[in-house]
Amino acid sequence: MIAEGEAVRMEGILRRQEGVISLRQAVGAGLGARGVSNRVASGRWERVHPRVFRATDHAFTDRARLRGAALWAAPRAAVSGLAAAWWHGLVECCPAVIELTLPRDRHPAARPGLRVRRRDLAQADLVSVRGIWLTAVPLTVLECAVALGQAGPTFLDRALQRHVRLETLRAAHRRNLGQHGSKAVGLLLAAAALGGESEAERRLVALLRRAGIEGWQLGYLVDGYRLDLAFPRRAGRRRGGRLGLPPRRRAIPPGPPAAERAGTGRLDDPPVHLGRPHPPPGRRPHRDPSRPRGLIADSGDSRSAEL
Question: How far apart are CA 98 and CA 180, in angstroms?
Answer without folding.
Answer: 18
